[in-house]
Design a protein that fits this description.
One of its GO terms (molecular function) is transcription cis-regulatory region binding. The protein is α/β, with parallel strands linked by helices. It has 13 helices and 12 strands. The structure holds alpha-D-ribofuranose.
């Protein structure tokens, strides 16, 4: 009995393309459609009636639930999801949860009713019960970025703890002798992992004390407030690692207002690699996440799950990279 994969192989196309021809959902050019129909005829392929039944509920649409669409990090990631989805003939619905669990649950209910083919969660409030619910309703999902690794689903994230250690090592190499950390909301796994990475990197130094770790909120204003609090307690700090770029930009602004020269008096390093880091003065050093790659990989895994060409969960942790710029370029201390 020929399968959809046999048809795809004979026609020299993807399973997703064969599925679109069978279910008439999504674009297929005429030449390709003829090849697929010829292969179906040659193989006497009979689409599985139940699978077709389920598949016919397919809408050729996936959803991405983001926590903060105003943060360029998520905008770039959503763009990558959309580019990859479009390659496979899927459209994308963007949902902004504002980090609110209730708003996210509403989205899930609405998306279920719309027979969405799959969901990418880039927010933080997904719980084990939510994952179980999605499984029960046979809705494939991928958790992107803010994902504790023990979730029973596919995950795409970057090396947060390792990235924090890279940031601290870089600040030390530029001659910093007392480095603080502005951390994001600790209910968010990425913020927690970066804080742990910072602690791991500095705990052996005699200058380290817990009050060098100050709370932020992953936003620009949180970076500004954190600098004011930090310098009240530690006016001799000469390096700041911020848990994301928006807080690092806020820190630059606060330091400028205080008349403190960056990097000569205090060097600043962020985390994410968003475009804002390039337009700041001085340009901001950051630990760049592979944002676009994370988004496109999450979409690729989700679509393989939807098409049934991927069964097991994938946990992908991608490398981050240091981009050194003028906010840390100091004359090495003598
Ligand atoms: O800037 C937003 C932060 O939240 C990023 O660091 C990203 O990793 C997300 O967790």
């Amino acid at each position: 009995m020929a399968t959809i994969r046999d048809v795809a192989k004979l026609a020299g196309v993807s399973v997703a393309t064969v599925s679109r021809v069978i279910n008439k959902n999504g674009y297929v050019n005429q030449g390709t459609e003829q090849k697929v129909r010829k292969a179906i005829q040659q193989l006497h392929f009979e689409p599985n009636a139940v699978a077709r039944g389920l598949a016919s509920k397919r809408t050729g649409t996936i959803a991405v639930i983001l926590p903060d669409i105003t943060n360029p990090f998520f905008a770039e990631m959503a763009r990558a999801v959309e580019d990859e989805a479009r390659k496979h003939g899927f459209t994308v619905i963007l949902c902004n949860s504002d980090d609110q669990g209730a708003k996210e649950k509403t989205y899930i209910e609405v998306l279920k009713k719309k027979y969405i083919d799959g969901i990418i969660f880039a927010s933080q409030t997904l719980g084990k019960e939510d994952v179980a619910q999605m499984k029960k309703h046979n809705i494939p999902l991928v958790v992107l970025d803010r994902a504790p690794s023990e979730e029973d689903c596919s995950i795409v994230r970057s090396q947060n703890s390792m990235g924090a250690q890279v940031a601290v090592r870089h600040l030390l190499e530029t001659g910093c002798r007392k480095i603080a950390h502005i951390y994001g909301p600790q209910e968010i796994t990425t913020a927690k992992e970066r804080l742990l990475g910072y602690e791991h990197a500095v705990k052996g130094f005699d200058w380290f004390t817990p009050t060098l770790m100050v709370p932020g909120n992953f936003r620009l204003d949180g970076g500004m407030k954190a600098v004011e609090l930090l310098l009240e307690q530690h006016p001799d700090v000469d390096g700041i690692f911020a848990g994301n770029d928006l807080m690092a930009v806020g820190a630059l602004k606060a330091l400028h207002r205080l008349g403190i020269r960056v990097p000569d008096q205090i060097a600043v390093c962020g985390f994410d690699g968003i475009y804002l880091t390039e337009i700041m003065e001085p340009e901001l050093t950051t630990v760049a996440q592979p944002i676009y790659e994370m988004g496109s990989l999450a979409a690729e895994i989700l679509i393989q799950k939807i098409n049934g060409t991927l069964q097991e969960n994938q946990v992908c942790e991608l490398e981050v990279s240091l981009i050194a710029r003028n906010s840390t370029r100091r004359e090495r201390m003598k």
